[in-house]
Structure formats: structure tokens, C-alpha cells
Amino acid sequence: MDRVVTTELRVGWGDCDPAGIVYYPVFFRWFDVATFALFAAAGLPILELQRRYGTLGLPLLEAGARFDAPARPQDLLRIESRIAAVGEKTVELRHAVFRDETRLLDGRELRVWAVADPARPKGMRAEPIPPEVAARLGRPPQ
Predict the structure, then answer these.
(1) 92 φ, ψ (degrees, to nearest 5)
(2) Which residues constitute the domain of residue 88?
(3) d(Cα 106, Cα 64) in Å, to the nearest integer?
(4) Alpha-carbon distance 120 to 100, whole Å?
(5) Tens digit of pLDDT for each residue in 18-54?
(6) Containing H/E element for 65?
(7) How far, in whole angstroms, is CA 6 from its chain's centroid?
(8) What CATH number is associated with residue 15?
(9) Contacts of 78 (CB under 8 A, 6+ apart)
């Protein structure tokens, strides 16, 4: 999926730390919101994937961000999200957060296609992403 999906949100007072800037873990919560929007735009709502394929969502394997500028209460932010890569069992996402034209940070997530593992109570295991899902996310047929 080559397109960029945009999610807008306004920073609330409760999103900020005592210095009046967005507390860094909040960006990762917003990345989740943007990820849900990205999958929905691809015709793959995550909750529907759970019902249809029995996934446990798309758990994080890795997450990171590089911060360039702060966000403050009442800032209107734009998160531009895209699929960077689709592997056999993983999806890499990239998020860029802007206030107007100022780039505040770049984020990266590596998520895994996971299902319940009946051999381990409350466990999970990675499985290959179904070909039709991988194709919608941008991986060419193999």
C-alpha cells in the first residue's frame, strides 16, 4: 500500500507532562489510532481481521521514535502513516507527526500477525499473513 493515511487529533491537557509538552508514551497510543485508521483505509479493519482470521490483533515487536520538536496543549496534529514493508509474518509501519508544516517526530512500528497458541495458556504465536491481506497491504503476490 503506497498511500499515506492521515489522522488528525488535538492535544488535550491530559496528554501532557508537567512541562506542558506531550508525554512521549502518548505518541505511541496515537500510533495505535493511526494504525487502525491505516488498516481501515486498506479495507482491513483490525477488529474485522480478528473476527475473520482469529488474530489477536497485531502485537508490537518493536517500536521507536525520533523526536524533533514538542507538541503542546490544543495543538492540532497530523499523523501521516504508511506501510513501509510487509514480511511473511510482520508489517512495518512508519508514522510522521506534524503541527502545520513542522515535523515533530518520526515513528516506526514492527507488528506481527499473531494468533492464540493452544499449547501455551494465554500464549500466542506468529503465523504467516494471509496472501489476500498481504496483497491489500502492498506485498506483491509470491
Answers:
(1) -100, 130
(2) 5-137
(3) 8
(4) 48
(5) 999 999 999 999 999 999 999 999 999 999 999 999 9
(6) strand 60-67
(7) 12
(8) 3.10.129.10
(9) 6, 7, 8, 97, 98, 99
**Count: domains in the chain:** 1
142 within some domain = no
Residue 138 scores a pLDDT above 90: no
Angle between the N-to-C axes of helices 24-41 and 46-53, in degrees from 0 to 180, rounded to the nearest 10? 70
Residue 24 — φ and ψ, nearest 5°?
-50, -35
- Per residue in 74-117, pLDDT tens? 999 999 999 999 999 999 999 999 999 999 999 999 999 999 88
Looking only at the bridges linking them, the beta strands covering 90-99 and 102-112 are antiparallel
Return the residue matching grid coordinates 495458556.
Answer: 121
